[in-house]
UniProtKB/TrEMBL annotation:
<dbReference type="InterPro" id="IPR029520">
    <property type="entry name" value="RdCVF"/>
</dbReference>
<dbReference type="GO" id="GO:0045494">
    <property type="term" value="P:photoreceptor cell maintenance"/>
</dbReference>
<dbReference type="GO" id="GO:0005739">
    <property type="term" value="C:mitochondrion"/>
</dbReference>
<dbReference type="InterPro" id="IPR036249">
    <property type="entry name" value="Thioredoxin-like_sf"/>
</dbReference>
<dbReference type="InterPro" id="IPR013766">
    <property type="entry name" value="Thioredoxin_domain"/>
</dbReference>
<dbReference type="InterPro" id="IPR012336">
    <property type="entry name" value="Thioredoxin-like_fold"/>
</dbReference>
<feature type="domain" description="Thioredoxin">
    <location>
        <begin position="1"/>
        <end position="163"/>
    </location>
</feature>
<dbReference type="Pfam" id="PF13905">
    <property type="entry name" value="Thioredoxin_8"/>
</dbReference>
<protein>
    <submittedName>
        <fullName>NXNL1 protein</fullName>
    </submittedName>
</protein>
Amino acid sequence: MAALFTGKVLMANRERDEVETERELGRALENKVLLLYFASQQCPRCRQFSLLLKDFFLRLTDEFYVERASQLVLVYVSRDETEEQQSAFLRSMPKRWLAVPFGDAFKRELELRFAVSEVPAVVVLKPDGEVIVGNAVEEIRRRGPACFRNWQEAAELVDRNFLLAEDFEDWTMRSITDPIRRLKYKLDKKPEAKNKEREEEAEEAS
């Protein structure tokens, strides 16, 4: 998914930090369902839907609702008339949201690439950039957070938060005993090293 944004800049939060390097983008977008949210806060339908989408996103990612965040990321692609309008809107939305900077021509590229002709629109993408849903606005309205399970299955996400029981057991044993083995190895080597030094000294003396 980071390939879609290679060479581009995304705003990482309401403080306007930038996510621009390939590594940062990869970490932010890899192995996640990506929502591209096209909207304008001058549009009454967008304002109404934005509140719904905010609740939708929080119920999937906020620790108040879930123990761990779903593998979901959202990028806001605005049609706002001014940077102040875009900034004001983002301040009212979840801090995890990303955004294409105001005035960036990349917004138009995204609109053309995903055939967005009206707002609000939510394009749902797999991590590799393949489209899962061309516009999920009505699906989100009807089903709420239940949508995500279907998207997750379609995206074939690897759930890295969990390992199979036997894998976890093996990993635990390795992680606990490895440092002990290394320490024992170092301790065992010290007497050997001293003995070798003594033997070399004895040979020199003779």
